[in-house]
Amino acid sequence: xxxxxxxYAVTSSPGDSLATYIIGDLHGHITDYTRLLIAQGLCDDKxxxxxxxxxxxxxxxxxxxxxxxxxxxxxxxSLQAQARDAGGDVNALLGNHELMMLxxxxxxxxxxxxxxVRDIWLQWGGIASDEAGFGKAHEEFIRGLPAMxxxxxxxxxxxxxxxxxxxxxxxxxxxxxxxALLEEEDLDAWMATLNGFGEHMAFSGPNMSGSKRAGQFLxxxxxxxxxxxxxxxxxxxxxDAAGVTRAWEYADGLCxxxxxxxxxxxxxxxYQLDD
Length: 275
Ligand SMILES: [Mn+2]
Description:
Elements: H1 3-8, E1 9-10, E2 20-23, H2 30-39, E3 55-58, H3 69-85, E4 89-92, H4 96-107, E5 111-112, E6 115-116, H5 117-123, H6 128-133, H7 136-143, E7 148-151, E8 154-159, H8 164-167, H9 171-182, H10 187-196, H11 209-220, E9 225-229, H12 233-237, E10 248-250, E11 255-257, E12 270-272
Parallel strand pairs: 1-7, 2-3, 3-4, 8-9, 9-11
Antiparallel strand pairs: 2-12, 5-6, 7-8, 10-11
Bound molecules: manganese (II) ion.
């Protein structure tokens, strides 16, 4: 077992009453992020961590489509330092928009299929002011993000997509593969992975095929329930975003989608694990 397995496979002690909170895809919506954190008692209006020893995970996709992904990441980094001082933690998963942001930062002027990487990023919803504000600290933070985490029997991944199994069939090997990708100079490797994130709703197929697939996926990674973002609930369910105020459990209870679709107009929500 490597350091990552200790860090990213967490088993809580019996009887502890500490909560784990999860917030879905922010896509630059810093005002909603701040409001949700304050309402949950995780920070005050001066943006000081008030969550004590509780734990917060952000499911990935800080960037693109909304006002300031950089502000969302800055706040997360600040709260992470404060929470760790208090015996708690704040962390995040690697989302495809973090990958795309870093890819644009590194290879912006390079061509891919006759288009610059920067233009591909802008087509994906890239926000020009994020490009200006993105620096070394953000790059380092993204480098430290796991693609997959197991918290007791819950498996956290960003996307409801099968691409993870192309990267490995154990938690450690998946995370090692994504870490290696972040150091990769081969643009094709980045684009192949980003392309894999084009898949959505891998676990919601008809006639129980989704739950069967979810069960196999969970068994592979030694978990009983899958928590993900990436596919906005209003899109997945065909409902109005403004009314989406809680996580969506599906696939026979095996999967929980925590992406309320803030960028589509959902007020968002904080999901408490084993609530
Ligand atoms: Mn995503």
